[in-house]
Specification:
Blueprint (H helix, E strand, L loop, with lengths): L1 H46 L8 E2 L11 H5 L6 E4 L2 E3 L3 H4 L3 H38 L7 E7 L11 E3 L6 H10 L4 E5 L3 E5 L15 E2 L2 E5 L5 E6 L1 H7 L6 E7 L4 H4 L2 E4 L5 H10 L4 E5 L2 E5 L30 E6 L21 E5 L5 H12 L4 E2 L4 H5 L17 E3 L4 H5 L3 E6 L2 H14 L7 H5 L2 H23 L3 E5 H6 L1 H11 L6 H9 L20 H20 L13
Helix pairs in contact: 4-14, 5-6, 14-18
Amino acid sequence: MARAFFRLQKFLRRTQFLLFFLTAAYLMAGSLLLLQRTRFVIQQGSRGTSANQALPVLDGMSGVGIIDPRMLQNPHPGPRLLVGMDTLQEPALDRRHSPRWLASRNSELRQLRRRWFHRFISDQEPMQAAGFKAMKRPAEHKGTYVGCFSEDSRERTLKGAVFYDLRKMTVSHCQEACAERAYTYAGLAYGAECYCGNKLPGTTSKPEECNTECKGEKGSLCGGVNRLSVYRVEELRAGARRRRNVIYRGCFRAPENLTDTFPASLIQPNLTVEMCSEFCSKKEFPLAVIRGRECYCGYPTGRFPLHDGADGLLCSGLHNSSSAAAGKYCLVYQTPVQDTRCTDRKFLTTKSKGFVALSSFPGAGNTWARHLIEHATGYYTGSYYFDGALYNKGFKGEKDHWRSRRTICVKTHESGKTEIEMFDSAILLIRNPYKSLMAEFNRKYAGHLGYATDRNWKSKEWPEFVNSYASWWASHVLDWLKYGKRLLVIHYEDLKQSLIPKLKEMVEFLNMTVTEDRLLCVENNRDGNFKRSGAKQKDFEPFTQEMKDLINRYILTVDEALRGRNFTGLPREYVPR
């Protein structure tokens, strides 16, 4: 018995010693890790540059144009490096891509991405809170429930407008959206998709097949898999009429044969714009065309592309329908109905052979370019990031892994050799840095659709933001020009001004072919769901002279780099202020 007790005592002593040793080792390892992280942060802070980031700039930057005339006289200007407000007289070409410069720039980019990630997470918190509030809110269905109908993506039941809200869709939200656009029926599917239309099929599905709960409203059903919960919203249309927009598109030369050009028509004495618009809306056409007492409905087509408008005087008064009775010209209006010829989208059926990036600096219009590409090609675009707000609004490629190759191209704001060389080719979208910086600052403080307040612009964060992000705008372009394997450079301003030609370039670069009617449909839906709304200050100038001097240097540097790679230089709009 004594011997057994001695063995137990010896074992406990060994175990106690072992536990003590493991505890000490754990504490030492934690202390070393803490010291290492502290040292890394100190080193990163000493290397981080924000406003002091070194980017090559050229002498003689006081010229009015993009290229200073003195630079043409002196083809070898003395380059220098910007460090805050001081300059070092060292050759820029020797240090432009030196290890020290790259380490400095990459250090800043890591900080920017980290701040960007935390900002994104914080942006999602109020969205989640709003989502929970929507879930708790009782259902308020103003429309009349019609029934459950089958839904086929290849042959849609309701052929009008389409809306997505994969987080907060409710029955009321869908009903109001369809009523504002002059539709009779609102249908919901998959708990998050809203479809509008004026015609229903004769047969219904079993009521129990519409069994999916709405994403933003507990206790309410929003269709199901290939099933639509359909409501009649005709009684809501009267209240929504005052919010409905009929947009005047202009005076155009009438096509030779209007009956062949437009699929629906109406002849009505004392015809008014409202009468023609209501008629075409019920027929689910986005255009209402008036010539005298004749009303025609249809789409923009090759016969009637709406590209070459005529002088309004030729229609003898913009809104006097009887004055256009000569027959050569007609008045064109945009009805509330959405052009749905290009709204169908899907993932690639087979993996893409080429891995294509859609690269831009934040605030340069990447989301808008994705909207155009998706509607032109009919395929989703992917993203290096996951943006819940974009996914909820129908950019379903956001949730797909960015390397799946199931999307036509992948959005990225990344730069650096490793990140760029992962892609086989890229569309490089460049926007005026003044506009890009303001757009990203607006997104940071007011989301994708709002504007930052005066308090935000006057805070100390705006100068810090410009100092940090202006250098990123330049280094992003320079890196893609250096490491990109195959590039198509698109300037945001050119895309906005000449949408169809530039969109054709992008589609051909992606090895896709599209019809002219589909491109015209994209042009008709050019703004998408991410155009900022609300009051915007005219002639608003948040940039100080010091900020302008900094940005102007980067503009000249990027312009020289583009021309050095045989690309077109920056547009004249970028001329330093």
